[in-house]
Every structure is written in structure tokens, then in C-alpha cells.
Amino acid sequence: MRTFGLMKRAWSRLRALGSRKPAPVVTAVQQEETPDAAPAPASVAPPRREKRKLREYFHLKRLDTYLITKFIASYFFSIALIITIVVVFDINEKVDNFMEHDAPVSKIITEYYVNYIPYIANMFSPLFVFISVIFFTSNLADNSEIIAMQSCGMSFNRLIRPYFIAAAFIALLNFTLSTYVIPQGNKKRIDFEDQYVKKKKSEFVTNIQLEVDDGVVAYIERYETSRSTGYNFSLDKFRGKQLVSHLTASSLRYDDEKENLWHIRDYTLRTMDGQNERMTRGVMMDSIIDMSPEDFLLLKGQQETMTSPQLRHYIEKQKQRGVGNLKVFEIEYHKRIAASFASFVLTLIGLSLSSRKIKGGMGVNLGIGLVLSFGYILFQSLSATFSASGNMPSWVAVWLPNVVFSFIALYLYLYKAPR
Description:
Elements: H1 2-19, H2 28-33, H3 48-100, H4 105-123, H5 125-142, H6 145-151, H7 156-197, E1 204-213, E2 216-224, E3 229-239, E4 242-254, E5 261-273, E6 276-288, H8 293-296, H9 308-320, H10 327-354, H11 362-389, H12 394-415
Antiparallel strand pairs: 1-2, 2-3, 3-4, 4-5, 5-6
């Protein structure tokens, strides 16, 4: 019976094969007879390797966008969170001064806090960068997203790329704000503080001496800012080492409407030509002298109200005149560049610390990150203070924290980052 069943199934299969119609064969003669017939379109599949490369390219592009968006969103979220707390404490501290000096609410908002918030945000931008990197990278590590990236073949060096793209965006934004935008707002903020919080401007300055031109030296014994007037003024002109003219005056007043115009009162002009000397006296004389009160009035925070081109021009001009004590202005100029570069250093440190999944999770990473970020800010402040009061060059003091923390970032990158 079993043999009969096998034979029956074999016979049925043979009958099925025999009942099939043979496929039509298209010969060369048939093709010639039907020239108008359109050939069937041939579907050529793309090579598998090119298709895989194209898919991988778009996949990595989406991943880069995802990481960059997370980085920047965390950065602005941390700014909003911390700035809110800072503003609340600042209002609590200054509310008595606002009420005492009858400060209008509109000016408090538009002239003070609108300019105060970008100033504080840019000042502590390295802290915000560090916190945001550690915050969202620790979340990625806790959710095993970084492990999934590495299991798909992504190296740690490839992971750094979107982080550095976001850090470059933040660095460019901070540099633009600190160089051109925030100094304009600082003028309004400082003027508001001088009027409604407490006076910080110098009322007078004494013993001013500076070279206003080649071989021309000016001296003012006392200058009062309230009257824009200086007293016991002298102007000496030299040709080589020989004195050729000597101007003295009891007072001079600066014209705020015209640049470098001074009104000189009760003057005496002595002109020397070899053995001959001529003396001229007068009551009033107007003279263009290449100096202004800003050249010798060093107000607190004055360097923060200048854009970087203005700072560079001011430093070069004062050095040509022989004015000393320019460290504060030089530190401010170099700090704006160094603070932008710090975004890359702190991003690498934060990524190397928080990209590994560890016991304790985000809390441990945030704790280490806060210690390092506050250490960076403290180191930056101390080096700037030592430079302003000592002999350390300004650019060395400003860039020293970046150099030290660059070595820390390199160590963490080589020995602590996941591979």
C-alpha cells in the first residue's frame, strides 16, 4: 500500500508538469516582424553596497541633528533655569534701592534687566555649556543610547563631531554677543546703576599726564567730571629734546558737542626759538587737543562698555601716549576670545565624563561637572586678578585656565572616555 501511494503521487506530479504550456520563445524573426513593439522595461537593482552607504549617510545625519538639537536645547534650558534664579535674587537685593531712588518700572525692565540678563548669561556661558553636556549625555548613557550607537559601529571620535558642531555654534554666538552686542547694553545698564542704585563714577581725577601727539605732552593737576573742567593745565611741545613751546592755563573745559575741543581760560603761551622767547597772554582760547576725558578717566566697568574694535583702538592709542595701567582693558579684550574657546574644552571634558554608564547615574556626573566648572571660573578670576596687580602678561593670565583644562580634557579623552 505504501508503495502504491508513492507511485500515485509521482504520477500526479508528472501529469501536472505535462499539462503546463511552454513559455513563448521570442525569436529574432519575430522581433524583426514587430519593430513597433516596445521592449519590456528592465528593472536593474542598484548595487547593494551603494544602497547601504546611502542609508548609513542619512541615518548618521539624523543622528547628528538629534544630538545637536539636544545639546543646544539643554544649553538654553539651563540658561533659562539659572538666570531666573539669579534675577529673583537680584531683584530682592536691589528692590530697596529702586524704591529709594524712585526708579520707573519701565526703566527697570527695559534699561536694566533687558541688558543685565545677556550680560550674566554670557559671563557664565562656560558653566552652562558644561552643565548641559553632562545633563543630556548622562541621560543618553542611562538610556543605553550611547551603547547602541557604539554597537552599530560609531566610534567615540565620531560621536564628538556633533558635540563640537553645537559647541562651535555656541562659541560663535557668545563671541558675537560679547564683542558687539553686550557692550552696547552695558552702557545703559551701568548708567542705570549710577542713577538709581549707587554712584560708582569718579568725581575727579588728579595728576594726569599723557602724550597727546609726537613730542606734545599734556598735564592736568585736577579734573572734575561734574563740570568737565580741569585745573592747572600745561601743554609742552618738544622738537627732539628741545622745548619749543610751553602753554599754561588756570583751567580748561571740554566741549561735549565737538570732539577734542577744549576751551582754555587765563592762559600764558611761551614760544622759544633759539635764544629768542616770545610770551603771549590771553583770557580765552579754543584749541583742538587730541585727548578726551575718556582717555584718563578710568571708570569702574568702563572696559565692559567698549566693543572689541574700540578696545583694541583704545589700548593702542593709550600705549602710544605712554599711559600705564591698561591691564584691565587688555584682560577684557583677550577674555572675550578665550571664553569662546572654552566651549570646546569644557564640551570635551563633559562628554568624556558622562558618556559612560556608571553606578550613581547623572548625580555623580553632575557633581563632578559642577566642581570642575566652578574650578574653571575661579581659576579664571584668580589669574585675571594676579595679572591686573602683578607682572603677568594679560594674554597669559586669560589663556592659562584654557591651557590647564585642555590637559585635563586630553587626559579624560584618552583614559576615561569609552572606546
